[in-house]
């Protein structure tokens, strides 16, 4: 058992919790939960950064005291994170006495080491960043802040300086000896080349405003907000002293915008305060930035896209899943509502929810509605169990490497295999044949794998994991320090346990419901996804511009298509319609789908039976009159009037995703 201490940045309170800050907080929660189920003794810290000129100005505008403003503005952060299932252990506010006391202690240590000196500072100061800029860093001609796009202010004041330059060589040596200190690796190169280009001493106190932590023995000065803020990671675990065991932090999660502060200034402050290299934080992980429906997260958009409202509309765990699956951690990415719905229906609904839904009802066909005992295993079962071991190991490797997306890829690969297993093992056939021993074995193995899955997904989807467990007749996941719950083998030996009722985990969101949910967010036209096109009369397979040439679409457009491999199990002509065939197609779903296709001039019903076809499975149903409805569209290539079905060369199981 080891300790695992992870932190979010402490958030500025002149903003509200938004999708960007929720993203960081959820990522820390996911990783900490992963370590909790592994039996580690974890600590998850978040909080608010409440000092500085910006806050003083907002409080003045509102005509309230700084402290009153800080209290009211910190609360929404404290309230929001639990509503996204983020289970922090501590919430630190920089205005708390416990923080002030320990930051002042750190200041004294740095001062006593001779690394602070009094000077005067004149420079270009951005209030938004609470940082000075050199002219080179500003956008010209008007000295505009590259982040806030507003002209910066010329400020001259007496100031304490920190001897950052003195630490240049030690920092470089530290990065060389601890290359995993900055992740992803490309960010380490960035940091190292910045340090190599030369570090100037930095100004770390202010006299132009009062809303900050007073400099010990010189109360004219308050500390620069970053000297005040970064030590939160240390001050929060000083008292009671039992908490000190968590030092050093295992990982600071930060957005790429604040990497420099965490990867250069923070270790240098700690070095100056007397920390040895192995007492420094283990890793600073810089994640990318989110856009929303393809738009940059401007301040107004940030205020409108409320993460808690998103979670209310689509489910907490769906939002957590989406953020962790759709965006490779470390890279920039887009939060797209239509992609969220698409993944909700196809990945969460079809792969995860449907699996349970296909298995549990079959258990009603057993003499008792209980977890059956395994009988003799066939190759189908041993293959599935081997896959469960492989993917569980792959998921843990990915979580250990802070790659939640890859962990989910592994878990969903296992779910894909489990769904194929149900297709092949066909419990309904065993039930029809009255072979209850075989039926019991199939269901036992499938349910045991689902039990493993409930642990594997718990870090990302704790609520859904516990709902699955309830249906499996199990209690919620309760991590215990020192006990590794990660499933290396599917659980056995619980035969006879009463099962819970099957309930849909992810009720399908159709286009109408999607529109309602999006409207409920009140995001407005600018950010709402484009309205779905009306069902085309004739299929228009390519996007074409006015000249008829094919135009390009984005990957997101393509990803909206749910293409599946289907097997035709019945086909007949449609009376009075020469061109149409009515088909029943197995798409790996509980029931075959009805499709109507305009292929009767090329293919006879007989030759269609058994054909493996490619189907657009998420196309809105199209009515052909007289109760005839097509629930999808098959794909053909066209050469003049001649049609050729798109098929697969290998015998893939029905429902296989085409991408
Ligand atoms: N108070 C400082 C941090 C001090 S830590 C000692 C600060 N606060 S902040 O409120 O501006 O939060 C910044 C963090 O929010 C970013 O580093 C990042 O973690 C997150 N994000 C803000 N906007 C974001 C996106 N659009 N996308 C992803 N994350 C973003 O900086």
Fraction of residues in H or I helices: 25-40%
Query: Per CATH, what is the topology of the largest domain?
Result: Rossmann fold
CATH class label of the largest domain: Alpha Beta
User: What's the mean pLDDT score?
Assistant: 90
Task: State Rg.
Answer: 29 Å
**CA-CA gap between termini:** 41 Å
Shape label? elongated
Number of strands: 26
Looking at this protein, list some descriptive labels.
OB fold (Dihydrolipoamide Acetyltransferase, E2P); 6-stranded antiparallel sheet; 18% strand; 3 domains; 659 residues; 7-stranded parallel sheet; alpha/beta; 26 strands; 21 helices; Rossmann fold; Isoleucyl-tRNA Synthetase, Domain 1; single chain; binds 5'-O-[(L-methionyl)-sulphamoyl]adenosine
Describe the model:
The chain has 659 residues and is an alpha/beta fold. It has 3 domains: 3-287, 3-Layer(aba) Sandwich (Rossmann fold); 343-530, Isoleucyl-tRNA Synthetase, Domain 1 (Orthogonal Bundle), CATH 1.10.730.10; 557-658, Nucleic acid-binding proteins (OB fold (Dihydrolipoamide Acetyltransferase, E2P), Beta Barrel). The protein has 21 helices and 26 strands. The strands form 7 sheets. Strands 1, 2, 3, 4, 8, 12 and 13 form a 7-stranded parallel sheet that branches. Strands 17, 18, 19, 20, 23 and 26 form a 6-stranded antiparallel sheet that branches. β12, α9 (259-272) and β13 (284-287) form a beta-alpha-beta unit. α11 (307-314) crosses α12 and α14 (379-400) packs antiparallel against α15. The longest helix has 27 residues, at 337-363. Residues 525-551 have low confidence and may be disordered. 5'-O-[(L-methionyl)-sulphamoyl]adenosine (MSP) binds next to β2, α1 and β12.
